[in-house]
Amino acid sequence: MPRHSILDLAPIPEGRNARDAIANSVRIARAAEALGYTRFWLAEHHNMPGIASAATSVVIGHVAGATKTIRVGAGGIMLPNHAPLVIAEQFGTLATIHGDRIDLGLGRAPGTDMATARALRRGKDADRFPEDVQELLHYLGPPPPDARVRAVPGADTNVPVYILGSSLYGAQLAAHLGLPYAFASHFAPDALHEAAAIYRQMFQPSAHLDQPYFIMAMNVFAAETDADGVRLMTSMQQSFANLRTGRPGPMPRPVHRIEDVLSADVLQMVEHAMRCTAAGSPETVRDQIAFLSVPVAPDEIIVNGAIYDQNARAQSFEIAAEAITAMDTNLAAMA
What we know:
With 335 residues, this protein is of the alpha/beta class. It is built from 11 helices and 9 strands. The protein has an 8-stranded parallel β-barrel, surrounded by 8 helices. Strand 6, helix 7 and strand 7 form a beta-alpha-beta unit. Helix 1 crosses helix 2 and helix 10 packs across helix 11. The C terminus is likely disordered.
């Protein structure tokens, strides 16, 4: 049965600021720990007024310091933006402070617009992702005696590394390197089933992992009723539409009818991108999670839920945890 985890972007709601968003992330991480979630991941994004996790390793350290047992990590670090040695030092330091609770998910996308990507990379070659991943793994492993460059801290911390992606490229790379793979089906679900199949078929056991480990991402907006869950979802729908139409901003307040604020063509685009979503009452969410995940048979489901009201957000993650547990119980009874 799949584990369940949380993916967080530290969303900044309208009328609030980045400090509020980071405090909200700490609150959700603590609640997730009490609810039995496996891990709490934060994502790297830049130049986005609605996301407070740009300095991802800093926020991870803050969240890890405010929790005790839940795994905390990056979902992910956009490695082409950074030198592998710097990331090895950052996450090696996190692991040195917090022990075996730190994860390092790696993505190839910029996590921003191209002008900001150029400002971040300063001429760094974005096509070296496979080589950069292997260099980073080298720095996090035991250093050879003659190593001229070492990550300190970082060397021999063996921070678990995950490949993140939304295409077959990431699935093939993760399989080739023998690493776990997390698929971004919460916003790019088109290749989900094919990527899962290719990853499992091509997987090569490694010193990091002896068998495939596939993580599926989905959005969950859970509330007491179907109508309430669908209304919670409208904040993310608006945010996604604003991002895709070049108008990123703070997370909007929910609306009663999304059709009143988004045009038909934009709404169609949003619904297509967000179709790996469960929204509604506990029963509806449980059934939708099962419908979406059972054909993929993920080892883990990582849940994203950008919800404006923080009490509703905490309740949604609580319902999601209960729904996945109930789904697991029902499937076990049917087996």
